[in-house]
Amino acid sequence: MRPLLTIFFICAVDVLGFGVIVPLVPYMADRFGAAPWLITAILGSYSLCQLIAAPLWGRLSDRYGRRPILIIGMAGACLSYLLLGFAPGLSWLLLSRMLSGFMAGNISAAMAYAADVSLPEHRARALGTVGAAIAVGFMIGPALGGVLVGNDVRSASFLLPALVSAALSIVAMVLVTVLLRESVGAAERQANRGRAVPATVLHTLAARPALRWLVLAGVLVTFSQSTLESIVALWGLKRFGVGPRSIGLILFGLAAITVVMQGGLVRVLAPRFGEQRLAIGGIAAYVAGLALAGLAPTLLTAIGGLALCGIGSGAFSPSASALASRQADAGNRGVVMGTYQAGASLARVLGPFSSGFIFGRFGPGAPFLVGALVTLQALWCMLAVRRASIRDAQQ
Predict the structure, then answer these.
(1) DSSP characters for 62-88?
(2) Over the stretch 269-279, which tens digit does the pLDDT of each residue have?
(3) Which stretches in the chain have pLDDT values below 50?
(4) Which residues contact 171 (CB under 8 A, 6 or more apart)?
(5) What is the pTM of this model?
(6) Which of 191, 267, 298, 299 is the 20 to 30 A CA-CA neighbour of 323?
(7) Residue 289: CA atoms inside 13 Å, Cβ hemisphere, count?
(8) Are 230 and 352 in contact (CB under 8 A)?
């Protein structure tokens, strides 16, 4: 448990800095005069760069260890926050998001680390620990960011939150250096450098049928998650007239539910129902929550829908990640988890780039309803994962 607690603490601090900034970017872009479609495109640029870089960082973490990749990613995040804090216009805001996305190798490295230090039967629990740490960062970060800037968009200063995020990245780097032991031994790293590994995401997926369906399910679910995250500030402002502080508190509550699921209930539910059924239940809850939020006539009803989304996300994410980790061995775990993370990054590109257009064309609730329809297809993918796993076991 000690390595998992250490990585939990480090990830929570790291993602806390990211969480402080995320809900504020739309307000910054709006102040610079950006249209809704451009605001969400700026958010999507982060994931576009992460999509390109995630498999590379996963492969490098197999060959050179998890710790160096974690440190490099946190250093890049620190620089991106400083660029964002002093951004004089949209081009600098876009540059900061792209740099942060390209350097975001820490998530796949952290997942690979958790898989390294856990037994196969406890992997959902271990990856749930990382997921809970990420949710803690997203729980506290948006609320902290909202408090730092206040509820008046016109007078808000975004420099202080950016500096706080940069400082948190530095703290996370120090924690990795001082507390975290490398999970990939020197001999294993040397063997991995000489081992032939798939050169691209497509090669990795071609060799693993079950992973293909898991990645597709992850894409469909994460599409809706990124849609929600990218549009929730504009949705709250236009539909219910709420500002940054209120949105930050709503996201705090949403992440709190996810933390309870990933950090606690998954430990009980996964052994009892299995990762496959838990993932399917999570998908169903997320679809129901999105539909309720999209159609809600009042803010209270919408918050109820978002709570269902938190339950669904908390059940699906660690379960699907654990199933993906079973498609790897110790020598290519970083590659496989980087590939799975690349699928999530692709969804985080598609979600923000489409949500702004849908919002502007069909109204505030439309992105949530489209997300529910898209995510519903993930149920079929999870059934295909089971069929592919059975065929692999028979072979």
Answers:
(1) HHH-HHHHHHHHHHHHHHHHHHHHT--
(2) 888 888 889 99
(3) 196
(4) 13
(5) 0.69
(6) 191
(7) 25
(8) yes
